[in-house]
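Schema walk-through. Below, the input block comes first and the output block second. Nothing else is stored per chain. Lengths vary across the set, and this one has 277 residues.
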Amino acid sequence: MSRERTDDEVKRLAPKQEVLRELYIKSGNECAYPGCHNVLVDENGNFVGEVCHIEAAMPGGERFNSNMTNEDRRSFGNLMLMCHQHHVVTDDIEKYTVEKLKEMKRNHEAKYSGIIGQMMNSITDYGMSLEYTPCCNCRKMSRILDWGLTDAENCENAAILDKHLQKLLDLPIETRRLLGIMVMRSYYDRCDCIVPIHEVERATGLKPENMIQNVEILERRRITSEIEVEDGIPNCKLYSDFKSGWSYWNDIREFVKQTGTPIERICCDLDFSVFDE
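--- output ---
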Protein backbone atom coordinates (compact mmCIF):
# COMPACT_ATOMS: atom_id res chain seq x y z
CA MET A 1 0.00 0.00 0.00
CA SER A 2 2.91 2.36 0.69
CA ARG A 3 3.73 4.77 -2.08
CA GLU A 4 6.07 7.65 -2.63
CA ARG A 5 5.10 10.80 -0.81
CA THR A 6 2.61 12.90 -2.72
CA ASP A 7 2.12 16.66 -2.70
CA ASP A 8 -1.56 16.27 -1.86
CA GLU A 9 -2.75 17.97 1.28
CA VAL A 10 -3.54 15.39 3.94
CA LYS A 11 -7.30 15.26 4.43
CA ARG A 12 -9.61 12.93 6.29
CA LEU A 13 -11.84 11.45 3.62
CA ALA A 14 -14.96 9.50 4.52
CA PRO A 15 -14.86 5.85 3.41
CA LYS A 16 -16.77 5.16 0.21
CA GLN A 17 -20.13 3.41 0.47
CA GLU A 18 -18.92 0.35 -1.45
CA VAL A 19 -15.96 0.03 0.95
CA LEU A 20 -18.23 0.23 4.00
CA ARG A 21 -20.53 -2.37 2.44
CA GLU A 22 -17.65 -4.77 1.84
CA LEU A 23 -16.28 -4.20 5.34
CA TYR A 24 -19.63 -5.03 6.90
CA ILE A 25 -20.28 -8.10 4.74
CA LYS A 26 -16.88 -9.54 5.60
CA SER A 27 -17.17 -8.65 9.30
CA GLY A 28 -19.94 -11.14 10.05
CA ASN A 29 -21.42 -8.30 12.17
CA GLU A 30 -18.74 -8.87 14.80
CA CYS A 31 -15.80 -6.85 16.08
CA ALA A 32 -12.57 -7.90 14.36
CA TYR A 33 -10.65 -8.20 17.65
CA PRO A 34 -9.87 -11.89 18.31
CA GLY A 35 -12.38 -13.52 20.65
CA CYS A 36 -14.70 -10.50 20.70
CA HIS A 37 -18.30 -11.11 19.69
CA ASN A 38 -19.65 -7.61 20.17
CA VAL A 39 -22.03 -6.81 17.34
CA LEU A 40 -21.55 -3.90 14.98
CA VAL A 41 -25.22 -3.39 14.15
CA ASP A 42 -27.66 -3.95 17.04
CA GLU A 43 -31.13 -5.49 16.95
CA ASN A 44 -32.66 -2.11 16.18
CA GLY A 45 -30.51 -1.63 13.09
CA ASN A 46 -28.20 0.94 14.70
CA PHE A 47 -24.49 0.90 13.86
CA VAL A 48 -22.80 0.64 17.25
CA GLY A 49 -19.34 -0.36 16.01
CA GLU A 50 -16.55 1.90 14.80
CA VAL A 51 -14.63 2.20 11.54
CA CYS A 52 -10.97 1.98 12.47
CA HIS A 53 -7.88 3.00 10.49
CA ILE A 54 -4.90 0.69 10.58
CA GLU A 55 -2.68 3.58 9.53
CA ALA A 56 -4.20 6.82 10.76
CA ALA A 57 -6.12 9.24 8.57
CA MET A 58 -4.31 12.31 9.90
CA PRO A 59 -0.82 13.23 11.18
CA GLY A 60 -0.49 12.58 14.90
CA GLY A 61 -2.78 9.58 14.72
CA GLU A 62 -1.74 6.04 15.52
CA ARG A 63 0.54 4.50 12.89
CA PHE A 64 0.19 7.47 10.50
CA ASN A 65 2.06 6.85 7.25
CA SER A 66 3.06 10.00 5.39
CA ASN A 67 3.78 8.00 2.21
CA MET A 68 0.14 7.03 1.78
CA THR A 69 -2.32 9.03 -0.28
CA ASN A 70 -5.65 10.19 1.06
CA GLU A 71 -7.32 7.50 -1.05
CA ASP A 72 -5.02 4.84 0.42
CA ARG A 73 -6.02 5.86 3.91
CA ARG A 74 -9.72 5.36 3.26
CA SER A 75 -9.33 2.19 1.20
CA PHE A 76 -10.70 -1.22 2.19
CA GLY A 77 -7.23 -2.56 3.00
CA ASN A 78 -6.60 0.18 5.60
CA LEU A 79 -9.92 -0.09 7.43
CA MET A 80 -11.48 -2.57 9.81
CA LEU A 81 -14.59 -2.66 12.01
CA MET A 82 -14.34 -2.95 15.79
CA CYS A 83 -16.33 -2.26 18.89
CA HIS A 84 -15.44 0.94 20.80
CA GLN A 85 -13.57 -0.95 23.53
CA HIS A 86 -11.15 -2.64 21.16
CA HIS A 87 -10.75 0.44 19.02
CA VAL A 88 -9.32 2.08 22.13
CA VAL A 89 -7.25 -0.99 23.06
CA THR A 90 -5.56 -1.08 19.64
CA ASP A 91 -4.39 2.52 20.00
CA ASP A 92 -1.36 0.99 21.74
CA ILE A 93 1.03 1.29 18.79
CA GLU A 94 3.82 -0.65 20.49
CA LYS A 95 1.67 -3.73 20.90
CA TYR A 96 -0.56 -3.26 17.86
CA THR A 97 1.70 -2.58 14.93
CA VAL A 98 0.54 -2.18 11.33
CA GLU A 99 1.37 -5.80 10.54
CA LYS A 100 -0.37 -7.02 13.72
CA LEU A 101 -3.59 -5.22 12.78
CA LYS A 102 -3.42 -6.35 9.15
CA GLU A 103 -3.08 -9.93 10.33
CA MET A 104 -6.04 -9.44 12.68
CA LYS A 105 -8.11 -8.05 9.80
CA ARG A 106 -7.12 -10.90 7.46
CA ASN A 107 -7.91 -13.62 9.98
CA HIS A 108 -11.29 -12.16 10.90
CA GLU A 109 -12.44 -11.50 7.34
CA ALA A 110 -11.22 -14.90 6.14
CA LYS A 111 -13.83 -16.62 8.32
CA TYR A 112 -16.70 -14.82 6.67
CA SER A 113 -15.23 -14.58 3.18
CA GLY A 114 -15.18 -18.37 3.21
CA ILE A 115 -18.87 -18.44 4.09
CA ILE A 116 -19.63 -16.01 1.25
CA GLY A 117 -17.76 -18.31 -1.13
CA GLN A 118 -19.75 -21.30 0.10
CA MET A 119 -22.98 -19.36 -0.44
CA MET A 120 -21.95 -18.50 -3.99
CA ASN A 121 -21.00 -22.11 -4.68
CA SER A 122 -24.37 -23.24 -3.34
CA ILE A 123 -26.30 -21.34 -6.01
CA THR A 124 -28.13 -24.00 -7.95
CA ASP A 125 -30.07 -24.06 -11.17
CA TYR A 126 -33.28 -25.48 -9.77
CA GLY A 127 -34.76 -25.60 -13.25
CA MET A 128 -32.31 -28.31 -14.32
CA SER A 129 -33.92 -31.68 -13.68
CA LEU A 130 -31.60 -34.59 -14.30
CA GLU A 131 -34.25 -37.17 -13.44
CA TYR A 132 -37.50 -37.87 -15.21
CA THR A 133 -39.65 -40.91 -15.91
CA PRO A 134 -39.79 -41.61 -19.65
CA CYS A 135 -42.76 -42.55 -21.76
CA CYS A 136 -42.20 -46.06 -23.17
CA ASN A 137 -45.31 -47.40 -24.90
CA CYS A 138 -48.22 -44.89 -24.87
CA ARG A 139 -50.68 -47.77 -24.55
CA LYS A 140 -52.82 -46.02 -21.94
CA MET A 141 -53.02 -42.84 -23.99
CA SER A 142 -53.98 -44.91 -27.04
CA ARG A 143 -56.70 -46.73 -25.10
CA ILE A 144 -58.16 -43.64 -23.43
CA LEU A 145 -58.26 -41.65 -26.66
CA ASP A 146 -59.46 -44.68 -28.62
CA TRP A 147 -56.72 -44.61 -31.24
CA GLY A 148 -56.87 -48.34 -31.99
CA LEU A 149 -53.15 -48.54 -32.77
CA THR A 150 -50.81 -51.53 -32.70
CA ASP A 151 -48.14 -51.87 -30.04
CA ALA A 152 -45.49 -50.94 -32.59
CA GLU A 153 -47.38 -47.77 -33.52
CA ASN A 154 -47.88 -46.89 -29.87
CA CYS A 155 -44.15 -47.29 -29.26
CA GLU A 156 -43.41 -44.97 -32.18
CA ASN A 157 -45.71 -42.36 -30.63
CA ALA A 158 -44.03 -42.86 -27.25
CA ALA A 159 -40.63 -42.13 -28.80
CA ILE A 160 -41.97 -38.94 -30.40
CA LEU A 161 -43.68 -37.82 -27.20
CA ASP A 162 -40.67 -38.55 -25.02
CA LYS A 163 -38.37 -36.63 -27.37
CA HIS A 164 -40.52 -33.51 -27.17
CA LEU A 165 -41.28 -33.71 -23.45
CA GLN A 166 -37.56 -33.89 -22.67
CA LYS A 167 -37.47 -30.21 -23.67
CA LEU A 168 -39.13 -29.54 -20.30
CA LEU A 169 -36.17 -30.84 -18.31
CA ASP A 170 -34.20 -27.59 -18.17
CA LEU A 171 -37.15 -25.20 -17.95
CA PRO A 172 -37.33 -23.00 -14.85
CA ILE A 173 -39.81 -24.49 -12.41
CA GLU A 174 -42.22 -21.58 -12.68
CA THR A 175 -42.18 -21.82 -16.47
CA ARG A 176 -43.01 -25.51 -16.25
CA ARG A 177 -45.94 -24.75 -13.97
CA LEU A 178 -47.15 -22.05 -16.34
CA LEU A 179 -46.83 -24.42 -19.30
CA GLY A 180 -49.21 -26.82 -17.57
CA ILE A 181 -51.78 -24.03 -17.20
CA MET A 182 -51.29 -23.02 -20.83
CA VAL A 183 -51.94 -26.60 -21.94
CA MET A 184 -55.15 -26.86 -19.92
CA ARG A 185 -56.39 -23.47 -21.18
CA SER A 186 -55.52 -24.26 -24.80
CA TYR A 187 -58.00 -25.28 -27.49
CA TYR A 188 -58.00 -27.14 -30.78
CA ASP A 189 -58.19 -25.03 -33.94
CA ARG A 190 -57.55 -26.43 -37.41
CA CYS A 191 -55.08 -29.03 -36.13
CA ASP A 192 -53.26 -26.44 -34.01
CA CYS A 193 -53.14 -26.15 -30.21
CA ILE A 194 -53.90 -22.49 -29.45
CA VAL A 195 -53.15 -20.76 -26.15
CA PRO A 196 -55.28 -17.67 -25.36
CA ILE A 197 -52.72 -15.39 -23.72
CA HIS A 198 -55.15 -12.96 -22.06
CA GLU A 199 -57.09 -15.85 -20.52
CA VAL A 200 -53.90 -17.34 -19.06
CA GLU A 201 -52.84 -13.94 -17.71
CA ARG A 202 -56.18 -13.52 -15.96
CA ALA A 203 -56.16 -17.07 -14.64
CA THR A 204 -52.66 -16.75 -13.18
CA GLY A 205 -52.47 -13.05 -12.33
CA LEU A 206 -49.28 -12.77 -14.37
CA LYS A 207 -48.42 -9.36 -15.75
CA PRO A 208 -48.06 -9.17 -19.56
CA GLU A 209 -44.30 -8.63 -19.33
CA ASN A 210 -43.89 -11.77 -17.21
CA MET A 211 -46.06 -13.74 -19.60
CA ILE A 212 -43.92 -12.59 -22.53
CA GLN A 213 -40.71 -13.59 -20.73
CA ASN A 214 -42.00 -17.11 -20.07
CA VAL A 215 -43.26 -17.57 -23.61
CA GLU A 216 -39.84 -16.48 -24.91
CA ILE A 217 -38.27 -19.26 -22.81
CA LEU A 218 -40.70 -21.77 -24.29
CA GLU A 219 -40.22 -20.43 -27.79
CA ARG A 220 -36.45 -20.88 -27.62
CA ARG A 221 -37.00 -24.57 -26.95
CA ARG A 222 -39.48 -24.87 -29.82
CA ILE A 223 -42.29 -25.71 -27.39
CA THR A 224 -44.42 -22.74 -28.41
CA SER A 225 -44.53 -20.16 -31.16
CA GLU A 226 -44.02 -16.50 -30.41
CA ILE A 227 -47.05 -14.52 -29.33
CA GLU A 228 -49.04 -13.28 -32.30
CA VAL A 229 -51.87 -10.76 -32.23
CA GLU A 230 -54.86 -11.31 -34.50
CA ASP A 231 -57.83 -8.92 -34.36
CA GLY A 232 -56.34 -7.48 -31.17
CA ILE A 233 -56.25 -10.89 -29.45
CA PRO A 234 -52.83 -12.31 -28.49
CA ASN A 235 -52.32 -16.06 -28.90
CA CYS A 236 -49.49 -18.50 -29.28
CA LYS A 237 -49.35 -22.08 -30.53
CA LEU A 238 -48.11 -25.15 -28.73
CA TYR A 239 -46.09 -26.79 -31.47
CA SER A 240 -46.94 -30.13 -33.06
CA ASP A 241 -44.35 -32.72 -34.06
CA PHE A 242 -43.08 -31.26 -37.33
CA LYS A 243 -42.32 -34.55 -39.04
CA SER A 244 -45.57 -36.40 -38.34
CA GLY A 245 -47.83 -33.39 -37.78
CA TRP A 246 -49.07 -34.89 -34.50
CA SER A 247 -50.61 -32.19 -32.31
CA TYR A 248 -49.58 -34.02 -29.14
CA TRP A 249 -50.40 -31.16 -26.76
CA ASN A 250 -54.05 -31.34 -27.80
CA ASP A 251 -54.00 -35.06 -27.02
CA ILE A 252 -52.21 -34.51 -23.70
CA ARG A 253 -54.92 -32.02 -22.69
CA GLU A 254 -57.70 -34.45 -23.57
CA PHE A 255 -55.92 -37.36 -21.87
CA VAL A 256 -55.55 -35.35 -18.65
CA LYS A 257 -59.21 -34.33 -18.71
CA GLN A 258 -60.46 -37.87 -19.27
CA THR A 259 -58.21 -39.58 -16.74
CA GLY A 260 -58.09 -36.90 -14.06
CA THR A 261 -54.30 -37.00 -14.12
CA PRO A 262 -52.93 -33.70 -12.75
CA ILE A 263 -51.15 -31.79 -15.50
CA GLU A 264 -48.50 -30.97 -12.87
CA ARG A 265 -47.48 -34.62 -12.81
CA ILE A 266 -46.39 -34.25 -16.42
CA CYS A 267 -45.12 -30.65 -16.60
CA CYS A 268 -43.69 -30.27 -13.09
CA ASP A 269 -42.92 -33.79 -11.85
CA LEU A 270 -41.77 -34.86 -15.32
CA ASP A 271 -43.49 -38.24 -15.00
CA PHE A 272 -44.13 -39.15 -18.63
CA SER A 273 -44.97 -42.73 -17.74
CA VAL A 274 -48.58 -41.65 -17.10
CA PHE A 275 -49.22 -42.38 -20.78
CA ASP A 276 -48.09 -46.01 -20.42
CA GLU A 277 -49.62 -49.17 -19.08
